[in-house]
Amino acid sequence: MTVMEQRGAYRPTPPPAWQPRTDPAPLLPDAEPYRVLGTHAAAKADPDLLRRLYAHLVRGRRYNAQATALTKQGRLAVYPSSTGQEACEIAAALALEERDWLFPSYRDTLAAVARGVDPVEALTLLRGDWHTGYDPHTHRVAPLCTPLATQLPHAVGLAHAARLKGDDVVALAMVGDGGTSEGDFHEALNFAAVWQAPVVFLVQNNGFAISVPLAKQTAAPSLAHKAVGYGMPGRLVDGNDAAAVLEVLGDAVRHARTGGGPTLVEAVTYRIDAHTNADDATRYRGDTEVDTWRSHDPILLLEHELTERGLLDEDAKQAARDAAEAMAADLRERMNQDPVLNPMDLFAHVYAEPTPQLRAQQDQLRAELEAEQEGTH
Ligand SMILES: Cc1ncc(C[n+]2csc(CCOP(=O)(O)OP(=O)(O)O)c2C)c(N)n1
Questions:
Q1: pTM for this model (two decimals)
Q2: Any ligand 1 atom below 6 A from CB of 79
Q3: Least confident stretch, 90-99, 189-198, 343-352
Q4: Superfamily the domain 24-335 falls into
């Protein structure tokens, strides 16, 4: 007899006992961004590490200024500055071991450079030159990624594959607040959590996706809360506090390395410059907001902490500035040299087997270049 035939006798019964798959409580982020500088936690931080961070931040700020200047001279096509976000950039690079992989977005040149990529080669994409410009395998830095959030599934795939092969590798993937609205963000986090892949997602919440403020991007309590829906821990950190970002990322990397699975870290920071040199930020935000963030500056915060504790004197500050100037001078000089490029390289490394359309375009370009050389163009 079917249930329908029994209808008169049917008594509803409760479903099998409900078991949450994971206890959500330990996954929830703190109510406020975690801070180290200016708190009692700072006393535990290693002075040498703090000084190293400081030198990196000063150099990073100078790099941003120099690269922006190069756009004005026409030496660089576009530069998405990370001024104000240097603590996130540097901490992302320093949190990883050499054998790990970094997956940066277009704004993360500094992280790539801090990991060892040549400062000029790191700008190749933004200069509009040859492909990635650096060999991603040398320093284990994936290409700077312009399509939003597409680097995230790549990072998960690499981390998952490494785990299957038994390689001790963690992937750290960087993305902006706007990028969290992309489908790739969802797919990456979901796969990472289901597979327990050794990956760390660092969201730099810098307030804007070009002109779109965070309030128009999401109604979530914080971006870190999104982690809970996927079943991974979410951490909220002050993105301008270099010591805090490094500590939180370091914990997340260790957690991933020891089989704990992925973590989503939201670093709350601010984009001090416009989106790129092609953007006018005065059209969508006011000076007061920018000034508030300028006084919560990552370099000033760290400098204050180090100075208060007698760990940084004038000579040390000058040495950091001198090193940054030397890097900027070298960057200027090398970026002012015209690279020798072969336009035919446009077609190299695109497909293993070029499509008929690409072959036709290749032939057309070759003919044009030959005609130009012969002076018949
Ligand atoms: C898939 C995709 N859609 C749209 C764009 C155009 N776009 C470039 S940057 C950007 C804003 C991204 O903001 P956010 O993720 O917050 O990163 P931020 O630039 O602030 O670092 C958009 C929409 C793109 N690059 N890729």
A1: 0.94
A2: no
A3: 343-352
A4: Thiamin diphosphate (ThDP)-binding fold, Pyr/PP domains (3.40.50.970)
